[in-house]
């Protein structure tokens, strides 16, 4: 396996890779309706792509208010720290932009992953697109 790299993506130029990954993970695997996956926030978000070599294998986005979302890694690359690299890049960019709090809506099964990165659960469990979620918060340590 080549090393994993993460870069800030361009919603227009990198749209095919961003869509390919999110469609495979959220729409095909998790049965999220396409109308819930694609929203107007994509145009204003900072997007990230994770690569193995020159092949895009993961994505995430950061909204201007510090909300992190659409964290996704293709099935064959899960468990290989791709999500860790992605989330670290998103957190670093958020902090660089002065967003000292980051929030996200996490699938319940993924909460240990986010807790490793300093997030804590804020809410009771709720359904989003039919999948159990909780709200989580990370505050930059001073």
From TrEMBL:
<dbReference type="InterPro" id="IPR016181">
    <property type="entry name" value="Acyl_CoA_acyltransferase"/>
</dbReference>
<protein>
    <submittedName>
        <fullName>Putative GNAT family N-acyltransferase</fullName>
    </submittedName>
</protein>
<dbReference type="Pfam" id="PF13673">
    <property type="entry name" value="Acetyltransf_10"/>
</dbReference>
<keyword id="KW-0808">Transferase</keyword>
<dbReference type="GO" id="GO:0016747">
    <property type="term" value="F:acyltransferase activity, transferring groups other than amino-acyl groups"/>
</dbReference>
<dbReference type="InterPro" id="IPR050832">
    <property type="entry name" value="Bact_Acetyltransf"/>
</dbReference>
<dbReference type="InterPro" id="IPR000182">
    <property type="entry name" value="GNAT_dom"/>
</dbReference>
<keyword id="KW-0012">Acyltransferase</keyword>
<feature type="domain" description="N-acetyltransferase">
    <location>
        <begin position="4"/>
        <end position="141"/>
    </location>
</feature>
């Amino acid at each position: 396996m080549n090393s994993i790299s993460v870069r800030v993506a361009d919603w227009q130029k990198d749209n095919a890779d961003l869509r390919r990954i999110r469609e495979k993970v959220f729409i095909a695997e998790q049965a999220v309706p396409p109308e819930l996956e694609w929203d107007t926030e994509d145009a204003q978000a900072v997007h990230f792509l994770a690569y193995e070599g020159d092949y895009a294998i993961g994505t995430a986005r950061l909204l201007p208010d510090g909300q992190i979302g659409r964290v996704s890694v293709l099935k064959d690359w899960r468990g290989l720290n791709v999500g860790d690299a992605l989330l670290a890049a998103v957190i670093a960019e958020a902090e660089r932009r002065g967003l000292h709090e980051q929030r996200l809506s996490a699938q319940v099964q993924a909460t240990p992953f986010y807790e490793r990165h300093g997030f804590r659960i804020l809410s009771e469990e709720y359904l989003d697109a039919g999948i159990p979620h909780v709200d989580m918060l990370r505050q930059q340590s001073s």
